């Protein structure tokens, strides 16, 4: 069978890419002349950086083809390892080590140990988990590792990693080539050949690939699946570390920057090889290296697009995902859906819940709840600001409920939609300047903006139409990166210097002015409650049922007459409209809007917290207040002079590591926190007989299993009872055989008659 | 009396909190063929999963060649010579035929030996050694799965529904190979739902119903009781 099929759509995509490239060059071509010398330089630079991209990407591919896990933490592992390398080689912590020894130490000891730990602690338990859970856990791990690196190596000084053979090189004709660049190419080539031989020519490699195919059968053949997976993780981590250390001298050495190079580019290159072909992955890495280099040299989009260069890899990713042959996309686990069997909430329950939330919001803001508020009567403006930020994020998070929670469409780009909404609001305010609102606009525009954002979602839905699972996630990732690197930084979108002094004070709705923090907070609370209620109604509607059916099985949904494409378009448009409106409120709530607010990592934090809480439950949105609650508490403690461990715990540990750790926690709690809380809470509600019955049934099976474990399912014999008595340490004066009618024995006996 | 090659004493096992086997007693004498028959869902595959170490029994004893092996890992048992050809196609669909054969070398036989034997027994596999196993026909896949049993010289062979979904001619062919293995003195435990072909090769047969062995005896006697068993009438009793 062919590993790679050239498809018409791929050709079309390539054609489109070439065409847009031509336009770019023609329209934005930099003044730099095109000489053969420059071409050689740009090519050499592109290839040598591309070689490192290939290196990183092959690590991703190795882990995917041998464990079935797409590891979003790949870059994080590389970043962490590179900083460890910096610590021991550049910072000279510990004995002085030569570069090569430090490299070997990190690549062959530290990184593999990290990889094995990740496998043993986390991935092993995720073997049969649904794809969404796997994705969230590795994304959570990525965020965790980046936070960890950022916390250990604070951004308080400039760090740098020096090249190997700094300053030395050789010449090809006129051209001087540095040794380290040449080495990149050689190392990447050696590793690619080594991996190819390992995976296809050795028994161990064949067995590693066999594990993904059929884990049980691998064991039945006598190979050790656990050891093979651990080795795959060790190998993948080593490759990430190697690439990280070699890339580090080339770029600004900070975790986020390094991660985007290591991960985003690696993902794009890996996608180019369909996440399975090593040779094509290497080609993909080299290609991206070349494109970036040529782009730097000859294309100048001007100061308005300062970060467009970072979008090269995401654009490649976007095109490649669209062009991939569909047949290949179902690799991995598609059928293992663990959607909780939920009882759909009644409309009246939704209404009661909404009213309750508004009331709670009022009570908190007015200081009625003394345990949450320290200045009863008047909540400090700082706390109210935190409350406002939390509720705005909660509203954005709400947009994920129908899209990901119900329809199963993984979306890493909620902030792309939110940013689009914010942009429209600011622009509409400027263009149609509503006089008495100081240019910010009136909230009456909100539904209009929702309507305007819907087509953007619909557009993404059209692209996503034939994708599912991992590739859908990658598409949304590319989308988020393209918007946040190309679109949002443009000064016509979000002005560099904000022109809206304390805007939310000026927001009005008809005659009501939300001119105090309190009323704005209550507005957000009300919108959240309203949004929740609408979602409850929507879930019970035709569309709600179709979305859930689509998540269970697209094919099955299609066979019962659901128009899958249209259903997808509707859910994307709905989600996009919701996020867009929430984005407006976010922009309004801040005195400055910056394109950095809408970057990928912020969006991922929302997605992670939402996933950990339970995507399919609207109320999970309240979990987004998590970080702000911890920060608020910490600030409060600081105000009262109580600095120290508790503050550190709240602010620097829980608030920062929380999102990543909660997502990692999905390893054990795959259904999310709300589900577990609901299971405990629902039986308390007077009208929930079903929940009580379920709880009773669950307890009964559990008890039976425990009793079964004691060997008590057999009819009682006197020996068994004596054995049990001695095991439990029960002293009884009844002699065996003389009738044992006391203590433990009696109830059990009667049930077995 | 000789030590049985495989013995289960009052084995209980299940999936999570669901109990499937409620005390299975089973004996396979060395060099003999035992057919384990029973309707769908009786627990036959679960029995084999216990015997191969894939599921740990929650009670009872599992003995192989007289040694208690409760808790042994499936890969350790496999290297020790326990060979289970699982239900469905026991092949790796995304590996080539040759790579599948390479996977059979973990129990100690060299690659050359396994490959020669497999291609000799099933020449059709030899012609397709570069093909992905997932693209083979059902019969060819079952041959490839059987090749592990034939070429690695196991001590105990367990076959789960070898005939499922295959044309009668291919079933004949596969069972003639099983008969050859049996003549060579291999101990075999065969699980099937439909009895005709198996009872021809078996020395003894057992019926399993609702997670218990309800009847054991010579194949001829068991054949008569099978119909009753399938109709759900509990013959024998416990
Ligand atoms: N992975 C599993 N999880 C839960 N229950 C299972 C699983 N596999 C089988 N069962 C249940 O165990 C029982 C016996 O199954 P099995 O041993 O496969 O029967 P047989 O092979 O005789 O058809 C059936 O009721 C089946 O539903
Ligand atoms: Mg079965």
Description:
- The complex is a heterodimer of chains A (753) and B (238).
- Chain A contains 29 helices and four strands.
- With 753 residues, chain A is mainly α.
- In chain A, the strands form two sheets. A two-stranded antiparallel sheet of chain A has the order 1-2.
- In chain A, helix 2 packs parallel to helix 6.
- Chain A starts with 7 loop residues before the first helix and ends with a helix.
- Residues 1-5, 327-340, 435-440, 498-505, 708-717 and 732-753 of chain A have low confidence and may be disordered.
- Chain B has 238 residues and is of the alpha/beta class.
- Chain B is 35% helix and 26% strand.
- Chain B has nine helices and ten strands.
- In chain B, helix 4 (111-121) packs across helix 6 and helix 6 (138-151) runs parallel beside helix 7 (168-183).
- The longest helix of chain B is centred in the last third of the chain and has 16 residues, at 168-183.
- Chain B is globular.
- Chain B starts with 5 loop residues before the first strand and ends in an 8-residue tail after the last helix.
- Classes of the chains: A mainly alpha (753), B alpha/beta (238).
- The A-B interface holds A 1, 203, 206-207, 209-210, 212-214, 216-225, 701-702, 704-705, 708-709, 711 and B 12, 17, 19, 52, 54, 58-59, 73-75, 78-79, 83-84, 86, 90-95, 99, 102-107, 111, 131-132, 135, 148.
- The complex binds adenosine-5'-diphosphate and magnesium ion (MG).
What is Rg of chain A? 29 Å
Mean pLDDT of chain B comes to 89
Largest sheet of chain B, in brief, is: 6 strands, mixed
Largest interface, per-chain counts?
A-B, 26 and 33 residues
Quantity of strands of chain B, as a count: 10
User: Helix- and strand-based class of chain B?
Assistant: alpha/beta
Average pLDDT value of chain A?
Answer: 80
Bound molecules: adenosine-5'-diphosphate, magnesium ion
Please compute the radius of gyration of chain B using only Cα atoms. Answer: 17 Å
Looking at how many chains there are and whether they match, the oligomeric state comes to heterodimer
Fraction of residues in β-strands of chain B:
25-35%
Any low-confidence stretches of chain B, pLDDT <50, length ≥5?
234-238
Uncertain stretches of 5 or more adjacent residues of chain A: 1-5, 327-340, 435-440, 498-505, 708-717, 732-753
How many individual β-strands of chain A? 4
Strand order of the largest sheet of chain A: 1-2
- Spatial shape of chain B: globular
Quick one: overall form of chain A? globular
């Amino acid at each position: 069978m062919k590993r790679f099929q050239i498809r018409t759509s791929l050709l079309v995509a390539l054609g489109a890419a070439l065409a847009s490239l031509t336009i770019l060059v023609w329209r934005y071509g930099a003044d730099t002349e095109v000489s053969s010398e420059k071409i050689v330089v740009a090519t050499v630079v592109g290839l040598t950086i591309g070689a490192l991209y290939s290196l990183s990407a092959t690590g991703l591919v190795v882990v995917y083809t041998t464990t079935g896990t797409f590891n979003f933490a790949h870059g994080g592992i590389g970043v962490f390892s590179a900083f460890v390398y910096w610590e021991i080689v550049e910072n000279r912590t510990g004995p002085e080590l030569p570069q090569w020894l430090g490299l070997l130490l990190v690549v062959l000891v530290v990184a593999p140990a990290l990889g094995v730990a990740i496998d043993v602690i986390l991935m092993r338990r995720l073997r049969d988990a649904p794809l969404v859970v796997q994705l969230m856990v590795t994304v959570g791990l990525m965020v965790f590792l980046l936070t960890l690196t950022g916390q250990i190596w604070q951004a308080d000084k400039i760090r740098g990693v020096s090249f190997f053979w700094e300053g030395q090189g050789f010449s090809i004709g006129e051209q001087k080539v540095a040794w380290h660049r040449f080495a990149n190419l050689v190392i990447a080539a050696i590793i690619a050949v080594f991996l190819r031989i390992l995976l296809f020519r050795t028994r161990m490699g064949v067995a590693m690939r066999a594990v993904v195919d059929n884990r049980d059968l691998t064991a039945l053949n006598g190979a050790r699946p656990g050891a093979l997976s651990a080795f795959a993780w060790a190998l993948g981590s080593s490759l990430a570390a190697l690439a990280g250390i070699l890339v580090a001298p080339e770029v600004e050495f900070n975790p986020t920057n390094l991660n985007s190079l290591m991960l985003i580019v690696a993902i794009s290159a890996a996608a180019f090889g369909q996440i399975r072909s090593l040779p094509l992955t290497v080609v993909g890495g080299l290609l991206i290296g070349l494109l970036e280099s040529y782009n730097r040299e000859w294309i100048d989009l001007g100061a308005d697009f300062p970060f467009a260069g970072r979008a090269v890899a995401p654009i490649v990713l976007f095109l490649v995902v669209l062009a991939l042959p569909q047949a290949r996309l179902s690799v991995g686990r598609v059928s293992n859906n663990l959607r909780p069997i939920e009882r759909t909430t009644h409309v009246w329950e939704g209404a009661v819940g909404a009213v309750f939330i508004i009331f709670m919001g009022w009570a908190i803001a007015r200081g009625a709840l003394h345990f949450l508020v320290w200045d009863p009567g008047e909540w400090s403006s700082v706390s109210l600001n935190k409350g406002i930020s939390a509720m705005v994020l909660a509203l954005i998070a709400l947009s994920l409920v129908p899209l990901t929670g119900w329809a199963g469409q993984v979306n890493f780009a909620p902030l792309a939609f939110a940013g689009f909404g914010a942009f429209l609001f600011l622009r509409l305010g400027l263009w149609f300047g509503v006089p008495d609102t100081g240019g910010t606009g009136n909230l009456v525009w909100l539904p209009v903006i929702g309507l305007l954002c819907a087509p953007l979602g619909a557009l993404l839905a059209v692209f996503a139409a034939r994708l599912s699972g991992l590739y859908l996630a990658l598409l949304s990732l590319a989308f988020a990166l393209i918007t946040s690197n190309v679109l949002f930084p443009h000064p016509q979108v979000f002005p560099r210097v904000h022109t809206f002094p304390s805007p939310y004070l000026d927001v009005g709705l008809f005659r009501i002015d939300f001119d105090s923090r309190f009323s704005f907070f209550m507005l957000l609370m009300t919108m959240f409650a309203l949004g929740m209620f609408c979602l409850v109604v929507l879930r019970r509607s035709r569309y709600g049922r179709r979305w859930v059916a689509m998540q269970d099985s697209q094919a099955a949904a299609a066979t019962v007459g659901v128009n899958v494409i249209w259903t997808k378009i509707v859910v994307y448009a709905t989600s996009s409209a919701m996020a867009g409106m929430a984005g407006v409120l976010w922009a309004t709530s801040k005195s400055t809007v910056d394109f950095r607010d809408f970057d990928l990592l912020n969006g991922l934090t929302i997605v992670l917290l939402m996933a950990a809480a339970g995507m399919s439950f609207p109320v999970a949105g309240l979990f987004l207040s998590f970080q702000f609650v911890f920060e608020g508490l910490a600030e409060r403690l600081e105000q009262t002079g109580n600095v120290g461990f508790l503050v550190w715990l709240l602010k620097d540990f829980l608030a920062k590591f929380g999102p990543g750790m909660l997502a990692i926690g999905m390893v054990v709690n795959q259904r999310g926190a709300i589900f577990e809380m609901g299971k405990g809470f629902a039986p308390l509600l007077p009208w929930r007989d079903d929940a009580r019955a379920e709880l009773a049934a669950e307890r009964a099976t559990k008890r039976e299993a425990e009793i079964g474990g004691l060997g008590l399912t057999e009819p009682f014999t006197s020996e068994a009872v004596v054995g049990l008595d001695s095991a439990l340490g029960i002293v009884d004066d009844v002699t065996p055989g003389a009738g044992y009618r006391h203590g433990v024995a009696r109830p059990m006996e009667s049930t077995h008659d | 009396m000789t030590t049985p090659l495989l013995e289960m004493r009052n084995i209980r096992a299940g999936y999570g909190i669901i109990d499937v086997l409620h005390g299975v007693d089973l004996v396979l004498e060395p060099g003999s063929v035992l057919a384990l028959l029973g309707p769908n869902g009786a627990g036959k595959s679960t029995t084999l999963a216990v015997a191969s170490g894939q599921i740990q029994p929650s009670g009872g004893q599992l003995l192989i060649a007289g040694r208690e092996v409760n808790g042994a890992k499936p890969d350790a048992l496999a290297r020790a010579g326990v060979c289970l050809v699982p239900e469905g196609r026991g092949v790796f669909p995304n590996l080539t035929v040759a790579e599948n054969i390479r996977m059979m070398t973990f129990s100690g036989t060299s690659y050359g030996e396994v490959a020669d034997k497999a291609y000799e027994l099933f020449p059709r596999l030899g012609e397709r050694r570069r093909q992905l196993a997932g693209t083979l026909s059902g019969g060819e896949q079952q041959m490839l799965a059987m090749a592990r049993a034939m070429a690695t010289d196991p001590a105990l062979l367990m076959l789960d529904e070898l005939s499922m979904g295959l044309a009668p001619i291919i079933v004949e062919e596969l069972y003639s190979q099983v008969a050859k293995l049996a003549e060579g003195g291999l101990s075999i435990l065969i699980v099937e739902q439909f009895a005709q072909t198996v009872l021809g090769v078996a020395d003894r047969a057992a019926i399993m119903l609702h997670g218990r062995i309800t009847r054991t005896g010579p194949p001829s006697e068991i054949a008569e009781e099978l119909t009753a068993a399938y109709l759900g009438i509990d013959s024998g009793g416990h």
